[in-house]
Write a structure and sequence with these properties.
Helix content: 25-40%
Order of helices and strands: EEEEEEEHEHEHEHHHHEHEH
Number of helices: 9
Oligomer: single chain
Radius of gyration: 19 Å
């Protein structure tokens, strides 16, 4: 059980070494092809769906709870990942409807997967924009399946999604909130500099300081030459609530620098919040430690309730 105390507008979860930073209380046309119900539980049903995005067909699943409180589309990280069914089921059991799909070029989805494992650059501007179109198309499709058309839809994503989600949200007003697990707020090139510096060393932070990392990120020469994507450009245009979940031992992104940049955006009035888990690394979604997902679920429920109340008052 988590122990929570409130000090100076910060929420501290002390049992799990979690720090939650917030300025508000914690509580978060494209054609769809025929679907097929292929599974059902006492908590939710699952449907196969297909939808079009940028000339190709993507395949996924919609999980619909008996009573839908909120709805999310899951956005992938950088790996060639199929639909995130286990994670989606965790959300659906809590009343959150989910659309999760096979990444472009993976599983039953058409198109071509781009990434280092196949020798291509998956974080150049062209690919990130393409993946943001896929996420946006999923949102458009999902809306047609929801019985209550006023149900807020958000994006939930991992790692690389930190660049994709802000792009999609800045262009699609149907996206009303976002949850980002281990997602960067720095540019794509800055993230590469940090990743090359840590070099997969899980003990990196035992032998390096925060100032060491920042100096390297600022001054290291780039090994690759391509136009950098800066998520802050898109985040600065958004007024939707966002929650970032970080692991302090992350060696893929510089977490403290990302939190500092979020604080700057919060000071500008952006409704952004973040939670820091001092014992976790880049993997902040785990079956062994459920607190990050539990926090995000409660946050989604509260934010969608606030969104519904705001709509009703207009």
């Amino acid at each position: 059980m988590l122990t929570m105390t409130i000090q100076n507008n910060f929420l501290y979860y002390t049992n799990m070494n979690i720090n939650f930073f917030s300025n508000s209380p914690l509580w978060l046309l494209l054609i769809a092809l025929p679907e097929m119900v292929f599974s059902q539980s006492t908590d939710f049903t699952i449907q196969d769906v297909k939808f079009e995005s940028q000339g190709i067909t993507l395949a996924g699943s919609i999980l619909t709870p008996k009573k839908t409180l909120a709805a999310v589309v899951i956005v992938h990280g950088s790996d060639p990942v199929k639909r995130e069914m286990e994670f989606a089921k965790r959300l659906a059991k809590e009343g959150i409807a989910v659309l999760t799909y096979d990444k472009r070029g993976v599983g039953e989805s058409g198109g071509v997967y781009v990434g280092p494992s196949v020798g291509t650059n998956n974080i150049d501007t062209t690919n990130l924009n393409l993946l943001s179109h896929d996420a946006s198309a999923a949102v458009h499709t999902f809306r047609t399946y929801l019985k209550d058309k006023n149900t807020p839809i958000g994006l939930v994503g991992f790692s690389q999604a930190g660049w994709i989600i802000p792009i999609a949200a800045s262009k699609n007003p149907q996206i009303e909130f976002m949850v980002l697990f281990s997602c960067p707020t720095i540019t794509t090139l800055e993230q590469l500099r940090f990743q090359f510096y840590t070099n997969g060393n899980n003990n990196f932070w035992e032998n390096h300081t925060e100032s060491d990392a920042r100096e390297h990120i600022k001054n290291d020469s780039d090994r690759y030459q391509f136009t950098a994507t800066d998520p802050k450009i898109f985040l600065s245009t958004l007024s939707i609530p966002g929650l970032w979940i970080f692991g302090e031992k992350d060696i893929q992104i510089p977490v403290k620098l990302c939190m500092e940049q979020l604080n700057t955006l919060k000071a500008q009035g952006k409704p952004f919040e973040y939670a820091l888990f001092s014992t976790l690394g880049h993997n902040t979604v785990s079956d062994n430690i459920t607190a990050p997902v539990d926090i995000s679920i409660q946050w989604i429920k509260q934010k969608t309730l606030n969104i519904k109340k705001s709509k009703a008052s207009k």
